Amino acid sequence: MPPSELAPERVIIVGAGPAGLACAATLLEVSEMHVILVDAGAGPGGQYWRQPPPTDDPQGVDPEALRGLHHDLGTFESLRARLDEGRAAGRATLLTEHHVWTVVPTAGGYVVHAVDRGAGPGRERTVEIGADRLVIATGAHDRALPFPGWDLPGVMTAGGLQALLKAGDVAAGRRVAVGGTGPFLLPVAAGLAARGASVVGVFEANSPVRWLRELGPVAANRGKLAEGAGYAATLVRHRVPVHVRTMIVEAHGVDRVEAVTVARVDGAGRPQRHGLRRLEVDAVGVGWGFSPQLDLPVTLGCALAPDTSGTAVVQVDDWQRTSRPGVSAAGEACGVGGAALAVAEGHLSAYGVVAGDAGSGPPAEVAGLRAVIARLRRFASAMQRAHPVPAGWAETLRPSTVVCRCEEVSAGVVQRAISERGATGARQVKQLTRAGMGWCQGRVCGYAVELLAGGGGAATERLVSTPVPLGVLAHPPSKSAM
Amino acid sequence: MSTVVVIGAGIVGAACAHDLARGGADVVVLDRGPVASGTTSRGEGNILVSDKGPGAELDLARLSRDAWLELGDELGRDPMELEEKGGVVVASSPEGLDALEGFARSQRAAGTTALDVDDLRSLEPHLAPGLAGGVLYPEDMQVQPVLAAAAMLEAAQRHGARFVPGADARGAVLDRTGRLTGVRTGTGEVIGADAVVNAAGTWGGEVGARLGGAVPVLPRRGFILVTEPLPLMVRHKVYSADYVSNVASSDAGLETSCVVEGTRGGTILIGASRERVGFDTTLDVNVISILARQATALFPFLAGVNLLRVYRGFRPYCPDHLPVIGPDPRVPGLFHACGHEGAGIGLAPGTARLITQHILGGDGVDVARYTELLPDRFIEQEA
Amino acid sequence: MPSFAFDGSPVPFRDGQTVGAALVAHGTVSWRTTRLEGRPRGLFCGIGICFDCLVTVDGVPNQRACLVRARDSSAVTTQEGTGYAAE
């Protein structure tokens, strides 16, 4: 049968953030495949390019007013335009408010099962979408570490502060402390300061001296330096102090956060008990880097490998293909490294999908992408080395400090499971204490519990990636009409 | 003093270790993983008499239930969430109810307390209306299996037992007469033993074979659905009487029945499926959907309740669906305590009593009542 | 400006905002209490993975306030514990 009479192959891309959008754009350009982009959010962009939803209301949240929060929005707009062209031509489908709850291999490919929340609370339905190829671009979420008072309303992750700004144009408070480690703290603080919040300080746990050990990758990525300098200039303009080797060790308040205590961190990563300072705040954002979202690759049995910080990520070859046939991955799931890396990996993954087992594409283009990816991965590794979680982070914990927020399991209970019952990893702690068994299924506490239990960072298996109403599950899912 | 090596630190191994150590044996527990890392951590924690017809398995279930209550007294009920919650078996149709009540009569004759229930919703207000009727089994209980196994293992250690996690039992050491004198682990170390207990659950066939006493234990996959945390909505363990009226699924090899129960943590557990798919870990969405459908039919409020988690386990089953418990005539010194299928949690302490009697002697248990469970039944076939 | 009802009182919002964003802009940072300790919770991760921000919308409990779009027809209510009335 002549190739033009064969139905085009279908590819599902899970995640419409930088990596997913780039993959879709390139697939539309270099193949005849039908591209189905599935995202849990209200629109494309993922976290890096999180946008408010479209509105007709002139007083509604206006993406134009929020441009300054974004880095490289031009790339987003161009990728989105290419996707929209594909959709108009009937070559692409964008499913928003669709949260994939599992993926199952079938004879010729994969079936993606998603919860469609588009109709609002209590009106969910499930959808089943089949495809020949799968691209996982599910991104990452903030890594959180417990500390006394972290469960007070008003204490959020750094990413949470950013999401409020980018999607809602809301500053989480009037006096905000931003802490943790890593380059991400700067745009969060800068965004808040530009919006008019008083950022009482950025508290970076590590020392900039660590960057001196990474001069090669840093110098090779002058764009990143320029970006950082931009944020720094904003912080200077708004008189936001940046304190290094300092961390937030406690949040105070009765029903909401009212103050934080910050402490110096010594060279061994241990918070000091003298010289503590107390600052009044009404909102806090803490970021300790990001954890890739690996539910789907783990369910599919894709091989994982530890990244520079020891966190498991999806292992991919130089076409962004995973160890499972027909499954590719791009973006944070392959290793946290920012939007530019995700975009490059997304483009490369498209070439890997198109050519099946061989992989192809214009050699110069592919080589160029690989060079960018290599350079940005080196930078990402350097950042991980320069911004480790302080070794003494757990010294802030009191026995009563809640560790599992969902099930309200305290540090004392977790520690007893480890020291008295021999639990050697988050999974065992979970079985003995319920930590990780609540609504979030260990996404928030899992990293900390694994560190406390001395585990090796094994990825958690979640056969169900998002809550699914049983009544909806009981009925056969709608087959995708495409 | 006898040295006994127990292979497997699941619920059965932990129970055996506890009884043997209490009885004066010098116990070493081996497991290639940590405590309760096999099927024990995948169970609902059932301690049932309700699903057992007269025979050796029911006798063992009764013995074991009494042993669970003693364990609760000795180690504390709360730390293992041991609850005498009772079980309600419901029949949706009059034919199903007839069959169920007939079965209950035979169970009563064997000493089980089984009470016919006309007004199901007085026991379980959230059950769907229109069910034909049911039977209440007050003797059914629930426990948290991982906590229980950990507690028993720790109690064994207090009696001097040693636990070696990460130790894989690779082979047997025999003396000239062919008697077992030790177990060789993956590191090459040999642990001397007067007796070895194969409590390796779903891997009992493999471990048995390594020791020269193969037993036909195979995996039977089951999924369990876990809901969001809820207020107390389901008071007993509730399940449908499908097994009595022998309703088989149209999908050959897949059997499902409806089991719903609440937990201390507020979540509701929904089961139960049985499939012979080897050790295939792939999620089967069709099975999940069937379990959801059955559960919402029985408890309509579940329709609006969210599924948060699915886990699966591999029940260890023997071809006749009875566990294999007792000395292996082919290898003196080897004892099997595995193949409990979906009843391992409930039958563990009873199994431990039997095993302890076999190894250390005494007269606490009438082992003659349990000859149906001996490994001989598989070996005769080979001869 | 449109508003939704929150425990009966109007909370203004800008179209496109989530319920959570509108509540925080309004100065309300918690809208539920936890099951065991009765502690107040509101937004934490802001992107739908922590499930701390659960709130009842139009009678449906356990909706993530950081994901649900604010609408002027919505009735949003604080919730306690599991989000369901105790038995």
**Radius of gyration from the alpha-carbon trace of chain A, in angstroms:** 22 Å
Main sheet characteristics of chain C: 5 strands, mixed
Give the CATH topology of the largest domain in chain A: FAD/NAD(P)-binding domain
CATH class descriptor of chain C? Alpha Beta
Which percent range describes the beta-strand content of chain A?
A: 15-25%
Q: What's the number of domains of chain A?
A: 3
Question: What's the structural domain tally of chain C?
Answer: 1
CATH superfamily of chain C: 2Fe-2S iron-sulphur cluster binding domain, sarcosine oxidase, alpha subunit, N-terminal domain
User: What fraction of residues of chain C sit in β-strands?
Assistant: 25-35%
Figure out the total of helices of chain A: 14
Shape of chain C: globular
Q: Major sheet of chain A: size, sense and barrel closure?
A: 5 strands, parallel
Residues in helices of chain A, as a percent range: 25-40%
The CATH topology of chain C corresponds to: Ubiquitin-like (UB roll)
Q: What are the segments of chain C in which pLDDT stays under 50 over at least 5 consecutive residues?
A: none
Give the overall silhouette of chain A: globular
Structural class by helix and strand composition of chain A: alpha/beta
